[in-house]
Known about the structure:
Layout (H helix, E strand, L loop, with lengths): L6 E2 L5 E8 L5 E8 L20 H11 L8 H8 L2
Antiparallel strand pairs: 1-2, 2-3
Amino acid sequence: MKLRQPFKSTRKNKKYDVFIKTSQGTIKKISFGDSRYGQYHDKLGEYSHLDHFDKKRRANYHSRHGKATDRNSAKFFSHKYLW
C-alpha cells in the first residue's frame, strides 16, 4: 500500500481513494470525486471520458468550493487530480 497514491475507488459513486497518514500516525482512507459527474481534467485517466476542459466551469467550481488548504482532505485531492 502506497500512501498518497490515488487508486480507483471501491465505494459506490466515488472515483478514487487515497490512503494518508494522519498527524496521530494512523492510516486513513479518503474517497474523492463523484463518478456520476464530470471534471475539468482527470490527471489519473480512469475517468477521462468525463473531462470537459471548460475553463468557465472550472472557475465556477473553484469559486464555489474555495481553496484547498488542508492537505488531508477530499477537497485537496479533488483539486489536485480532477480540477
